[in-house]
Write a structure and sequence with these properties.
The chain is an alpha/beta fold. The protein is 39% helix and 16% strand. The chain is built from 14 helices and ten strands. Strands 1, 2, 3, 4, 5, 6, 7, 8, 9 and 10 form a ten-stranded mixed beta sheet that branches. Helix 2 packs across helix 13, helix 3 runs antiparallel to helix 4 and helix 4 packs antiparallel against helix 5. The radius of gyration is 19 Å and the shape is globular. The mean pLDDT is 95.
Length: 352
């Protein structure tokens, strides 16, 4: 059974069927939040970063939230695969007490961000002329900017309740910030589906932005100071954009999306809302996702997730996560064979 599925929206399906799977067809690259789930597709990332886009000359606009932003931050560096290896090592190597405080988790994530960026990563992320990075962060409003756990919990509960009625109500509770090089040609330069602010991504604020985009409310402390924007309580970009449901059809090229699921959940509060799934905005997108057969072959028959911190001891979790990442190389091998042998037509599926 194939390990990799290639799901294409109508425009992408037609274009790829006619022209094949070529890097120059893509102008956008997405990477979603989702904790350690990315380890199940790490092989795809490494193939894209090290082979598929290695000779890229035209701008590639990347958009990431939380751990997705960390993955894409590796692509923007001078040695993407070395940065990605550091991300894997630091991410898998996290160690916590049974019930760590928000501050303890934030301290480890801060060390991870520093490890990913190294000495030159912040400058590369902010100044790469080809990889035009966009990192999503959410600033809490009203109760969601509260210091106390009870008040913040109430704010999140209120967000979840209003989100049941309409995703558009998220703007009452959180404000989306898009940190980037402020390129006017970017397809993410004017997002209007939710209240959004554009902000400059710089060498001075890149590490803070990287920390903020992964700061899950209640689990991590908020980032309160980011150079270049006003003080506030900045949290995980996946709150508003868990798997993304953004209007991308206006973009000049196709969107490539290595993802761990075949379905797209728009926001963090939509995870339990089975009826709310993205669709029409993926008209020009190709989604690379593991098959059910591949997932069944992994340890515990699933991709890694945050529950593993609770259900497994540290050494068992680390071994499992490393094995899942190693097994994901099979996805990259299949993708390479599809490109090399020109068998895309037999593998392409419509995204529905």
């Amino acid at each position: 059974m194939p390990a990799l599925r290639l799901l294409a929206g109508p425009t992408a399906y037609k274009t790829l069927s006619e022209q094949g799977l070529r890097p120059e067809l893509f102008s956008q690259l997405l990477a979603a939040s989702g904790g350690p789930k990315w380890l199940g597709i790490a092989g795809v990332d490494k193939y894209l970063f090290g082979e598929f886009f290695k000779d890229r000359q035209a701008p590639l606009y990347t958009l990431g939230a939380s751990s997705g932003a960390w993955r894409l931050a590796c692509l923007a560096q001078q040695a993407p695969l070395e940065a990605y290896a550091r991300l894997e090592d630091f991410y898998i190597g996290q160690r916590y007490e049974t019930k760590p405080s928000r501050e303890a988790v934030s301290a480890q994530v801060q060390l991870m961000v520093q490890g990913i960026l190294g000495d030159k990563g912040a400058a590369a992320l902010a100044g790469n002329g080809v990889i035009r990075s966009h990192l999503l962060v959410c600033r809490g409003r009203h109760l969601n900017r509260a210091e106390g756990r009870l008040a913040l919990t109430a704010g999140l509960a209120g967000t979840a309740m209003s989100n049941l009625v309409s995703r558009k109500t998220l703007g009452w509770h959180f404000e989306r910030f898009v940190f980037s090089q402020q390129d006017p040609a970017s397809p993410f330069a004017c997002l209007q589906d939710l209240p959004s602010r554009q902000a400059s991504l710089t060498r001075d604020n890149a590490a803070k932005v990287m920390l903020a985009t992964g700061s899950i409310p209640l689990l991590l402390a908020p980032v309160t100071e980011i150079p270049g924007v006003e003080a506030g309580h900045y949290y995980d970009g996946g709150i508003t954009d868990y798997h993304f449901d953004l209007p991308l059809s206006h973009a000049p090229g196709l969107t490539l999306y290595p993802h761990f699921y075949p379905k797209i959940t728009p926001g963090w509060f939509d995870k339990s809302l089975g009826w709310r799934r993205a669709g029409v905005n993926y008209d020009n997108a190709l989604i690379l996702t593991p098959s059910a057969a591949f997932i069944a072959s992994l340890p515990f028959a699933k991709i890694p997730d945050r529950e593993d911190f609770k259900t497994l001891d540290t050494e068992s979790r680390m071994a499992y996560w490393r094995q899942a990442a190693a097994m994901s190389e099979r996805l990259a091998e299949e993708l390479d064979q599809i490109i090399t042998k020109g068998t895309l037509a037999q593998c392409l599926e419509p995204f529905v």
